[in-house]
Design brief:
five-stranded parallel sheet; four-stranded mixed sheet
């Protein structure tokens, strides 16, 4: 029996996200006398407004009818844009609490997220991990889809209620018996490493492999330039295989970004550096982030991992120029009329390109008749400020036929990865915990301190090759990485020489 004179009020809380920042959304439901209606107010998109029909159908499947009164749902704060379908479950539970089917005092102990199917099933939604972390910070539990249980457990939440369907949630909340779901310790991470090709499969190209090892050890950006078929893409696709696994803190940060984008893996946590390789037709919002819902872009999805840009000059120039600020700052700021959203993007850029349009500049047997104008025009597609942000530039030459059939065994990715891991351990143990690629200020001058001979050598190279201030600093960072690979405390002249060669590679 539904009361006809007194309004019924109930509320619960869910979480939305402004970029990476959680926003607590207060779901308030009022059932009051008046003409039957079901209204959702509070600046929501189409998916939010369609919650009414999904909730109606879910209630009907459970033989529950909405009262013949006015049902008003307010999502506060009203001026915050609401997006997505994860409001279904909190709205439905708030209505049930108003009807007395669920204790609204119990709901106050949880953040609630989940989409409802027409049969009452609770479906997976993006952002469960960051929502769980927000719940932990507020001292609350979380009610989430059962499919997202593993993802939620990595947050360390103590009070977790995974839901398969709406009826199951009702019974568990009514009985007070919540299934036991112990949180998972991050130290127990045992995810399977992604399968990459091995460096031992690539014949020749010792100089390029050395450059990629240096880049992996210090977190430096790399530009590979060479003719078609020289192995640029093969080398780049194997690069992520020599990177060490993420720290627990990095794993949570990377997984949160993927969770917000709706790309969480099955085991709920990303423990190895992500590898992203968008096609050169990618738009600016796809690469940088943004769009209608301000989703993270490819550079943020590659956070603490690798962003491979093949055929670099074929990307739209505005898209490439938009990379300049993120490469320096380590984050992307997407500005919109209703605010600014920031995503982290401390990723390594591995780019590959041909030296010219035909691809065979420098090869008399294959180059076209427009040489050298062909190469100049093609390379002019890339601006100087963008090229200045690549620490290592390497020419990838053709592999000779005798190298392809050579019986000599190349070093495996596992062997190279061991040296990379040791070099990174040296960098992590310095106190600041940063990789050499982002050393700055006092840390750079302290750890990259040069003796008079090295300083004189670097100064002469800077004058001869007209290095910018950024180029000088990045060369010094690469020299520091070369010393770390050898386990040497100080930078020596041969480290400076090799670093300058990488800086002026083509």
């Amino acid at each position: 029996n539904f009361p006809s004179s007194q309004p019924m009020l109930s509320r619960c809380e869910t979480v939305a996200f402004h970029g990476m920042e959680p926003v607590v959304i207060d779901v308030q439901v009022q059932i009051a006398p008046g003409l039957p209606a079901f209204n959702i107010v509070g600046l929501g998109d189409k998916a939010v407004s369609e919650s009414r029909e999904r909730i109606r159908a879910a209630f009907h499947s459970m033989n529950i009818s909405l009262p013949p009164q006015r049902v008003t749902v307010n999502l506060a704060p009203a001026d915050f844009p609401k997006e997505g379908s994860h409001y279904d479950l909190p709205i439905a539970l708030s209505i049930l609490a108003s009807l007395g089917a669920v204790d609204h005092e119990v709901l106050s102990d949880y953040f609630i997220v989940g989409e409802l199917g027409l049969d009452g099933a609770v479906k997976n939604v993006p952002g469960v991990l960051p929502a769980s972390i927000a719940a932990v910070s507020q001292g609350k539990g979380i009610i989430c889809p059962h499919a997202s249980m593993q993802e939620a457990r990595w947050s360390g939440v103590q009070n977790l209620l995974p839901a398969k369907n709406l009826l199951e949630v009702m019974h568990q909340l009514k009985s007070g018996v919540v299934p036991s779901c112990a949180p998972v310790e991050l130290s127990s991470m045992d995810a399977q490493k992604p399968v990459y090709g091995d460096f031992s499969e690539i014949k020749g190209q010792k100089q390029v492999k050395r450059a990629l090892e240096v880049a992996a050890a210090g977190g430096h950006n790399v530009l590979l330039v060479g003719p078609p078929g020289a192995g640029k893409s093969m080398l780049s696709s194997r690069f992520a295989g020599i990177l060490p696994r993420l720290t627990p803190e990095q794993s949570l940060e990377v997984t949160m970004i993927h969770s917000i984008a709706g790309m969480t893996p099955e085991d709920g946590l990303i423990t190895y550096p992500p590898y992203r390789d968008p096609h050169h037709s990618a738009t600016l919002p796809a690469l940088i982030g943004g769009g209608a819902k301000c989703r993270p872009g490819e550079i943020s999805l590659a956070h603490h991992g690798v962003l491979f840009l093949d055929e670099l000059p074929e990307f739209q120039r505005p898209t490439l120029e938009a990379l300049r600020q993120p490469l320096e700052a380590g984050y992307v700021s997407v500005a919109r009329a209703n605010g600014m959203i920031r995503y982290p993007c401390r990723a390594q850029i591995i780019a590959a390109m041909n030296p010219c349009k035909c691809g065979y500049l420098g090869n008399p047997a294959k180059q076209c008749s427009k040489i050298p104008l062909c190469g100049e025009q093609y390379q002019q597609k890339l601006s100087g400020p963008l090229l200045d942000r690549f620490d290592i530039k390497v020419c990838v030459g053709d592999v000779a036929p005798h190298e392809l059939f050579s019986k000599d065994e190349s070093e495996s990715s596992q062997t190279i990865a061991a040296r990379v891991k040791a070099a990174r351990r040296i960098q992590r143990n310095r106190g600041d915990g940063e990789l050499n690629a982002v050393l700055d200020g006092e840390n750079l001058w302290e750890h990259g301190k040069l003796d008079k001979e090295c300083e004189s050598l670097l100064m002469k190279a800077a004058e001869k090759f007209h290095l910018s201030a950024r180029g000088y600093i990045r060369t010094l960072r690469v020299a520091r990485t070369l010393a770390d690979l050898e386990g040497i405390a100080g930078i020596t002249p041969h480290h400076i020489t090799e670093a300058v060669q990488y800086r002026t590679g083509f």
